Amino acid sequence: xxxxxxxxxxxxxxxxxxxxxxxxxxxxxxxxxxxxxxxxxxxxxxxxxxxxxxxxxxxxxxxxxxxxxxxxxxxxxxxxxxxxxxxxxxxxxxxxxxxxxxxxxxxxxxxxxxxxxxxxxxxxxxxxxxxxxxxxxxxxxxxxxxxxxxxxxxxxxxxxxxxxxxxxxxxxxxxxxxxxxxxxxxxxxxxxxxxxxxxxxxxxxxxxxxxxxxxxxxxxxxxxxxxxxxxxxxxxxxxxxxxxxxxxxxxxxxxxxxxxxxxxxxxxxxxxxxxxxxxxxxxxxxxxxxx
Length: 291
Ligand SMILES: Nc1ncnc2c1ncn2[C@@H]1O[C@H](COP(=O)(O)OP(=O)(O)OP(=O)(O)O)[C@@H](O)[C@H]1O
Ligand SMILES: [Mg+2]
Fold this sequence. Notes:
The protein is α+β, with helices and mostly antiparallel strands. The chain is built from 8 helices and 7 strands.
């Protein structure tokens, strides 16, 4: 008799919730058999309920994915279409700066200089968004080569000079490492640019930014420190989130994609980005790459 019960229990154990103990074959222990069968009944009910929840959840997930896709397509198309006039503007402003359309007086030169800077900011914004959508669609394809980290950082600082100069911010450079690291210079430069651009954006005009290349046994650390409002403790954990930005508070334009993207890039190099900040004092972001 117990063998019959055991057979059913085992069958249930392996997922067969349709099986019940034959009450007629176990007439000597009716109560026991009934409670086993009603236990299986309630297990079957629960399983049906879970399946129903699961279906509902899957439908919701599908809906959300569809909305997310629509949103991404919309932003990607919009950004892409924005890029065309912005690039055209960029070329025209270069011609103006080079005085190809005639000599400019000092006031006009200054105006064109400011226009070119804000145009450059727009170009960077649009590139960040486009890059993010590209990265979401495909895995990052890294083209790694041995790169001198000092040169890469110095070149990036140089390229950002028009922006740091316009805020009267001095960018210092210090290094304790003079070697190469295997990396994709295009992508790491993009991450560095994002960190330096943030350091400039979240600093007071006239302040300084300290950059440094440091090492320990395993890693190279490219550190960017700026002195400004800093990041509140409770906000630090959000800075790498997609779309997280406090730029508006500082009357700036921001997508909240810069760090999200930089983090993806560094992670694809098997590295990480560290952040430390003291409110109203300083903030350090460090790209950590394996040596
Ligand atoms: N050096 C910094 N000092 C203070 N806050 C910072 C610094 N860097 C980043 N943050 C905080 O992290 C947020 C997210 O940065 P992120 O670069 O992702 O976006 P963003 O700069 O606001 O916009 P964008 O997409 O144009 O880069 C910022 O809005 C800011 O709140
Ligand atoms: Mg940014």
